[in-house]
Specification:
alpha+beta, five-stranded antiparallel β-sheet, about 35% helix
């Protein structure tokens, strides 16, 4: 078992953990806390139990537990200062500290210079990536609250809506999956670029390039034609 104190914002709280399989295995772990701390944590029992089940070891659990305590104590102090009206939802569900550790580790692997956008809680990011022809694309990524236990979800822009959602256990694998899908549209996008550069285009070129395979082209006085390129056969006869 483990017994000790956690100090948060000048307050010390006693805790005790029973670890049947030792500090490196949290299976069947049980947590006991002081009565005052139990009252503070009562709205978050399910979250704490989830951390007990999913933490890889004692150190990871204590890191997450301290992070949770800090947020609870801060909100409790705000309540005492009458800054919070509703006590029912006193703690926003944010990822534990270990999730942030893994998120930052993933971003570092691909490089911070690839970031186009990032949310305040770090759970949503947008990356700039290039396909094999150097075209720029955006990969939107959502990290689950218990990452890396659950996979990362990515969203890309391609003509086929069934291919816009991808998932993987790492950002690098997600990027590779996205590039593999982009490779299917290279010839179609080459055709579009040729049309945009050499034809009188009325409609279509002002929409997201990767999504839209349709163009309205001027072919004479008061006359135009609308074509839709087939991504599976870009050099074949288009839909007119």
């Amino acid at each position: 078992s483990y017994g000790g104190f956690i100090e948060i914002k000048g307050k010390s709280f006693s805790i005790r953990l029973i670890l049947p399989y030792g500090p490196d295995n949290m299976k069947d772990a049980k947590l006991s806390v002081h009565e005052e701390l139990a009252k503070l944590l009562s709205p978050h029992i399910s979250l704490i139990n989830n951390h007990l089940k999913t933490s890889q070891n004692l150190d990871n659990f204590l890191l997450d537990f301290k992070d949770l305590l800090e947020r609870v104590v801060i909100v409790e102090q705000n309540n005492n200062n009458n800054n919070v009206v509703n006590n029912i939802n006193i703690f926003p569900e944010l990822p534990p500290a270990t999730t942030y550790f893994h998120i930052l580790k993933e971003i570092k692997k691909v490089g911070w210079n690839k970031l186009e956008k990032i949310s305040n809680d770090l759970t949503e990011i947008t990356l700039k990536i290039e396909d094999q022809k150097g075209r720029k694309h955006f990969l939107n990524i959502n990290f689950p609250i218990n990452f890396p236990i659950n996979p990362i979800i990515g969203t890309i822009q391609v003509p086929n809506p069934t291919q816009t959602k991808i998932q993987s256990d790492s950002i690098i694998n997600l990027i590779n999956k996205a590039k593999l899908i982009y490779s299917e549209y290279q010839e179609a996008w080459n055709m579009l670029e040729d049309i945009d550069n050499n034809c009188w285009v009325f409609e279509g070129d002002n929409q997201p390039f990767a999504l839209n395979l349709e163009r309205r082209i001027g072919i004479g006085k008061h006359c135009s034609i609308s074509i839709d390129i087939n991504p599976n056969n870009p050099r074949g006869k288009p839909d007119v």
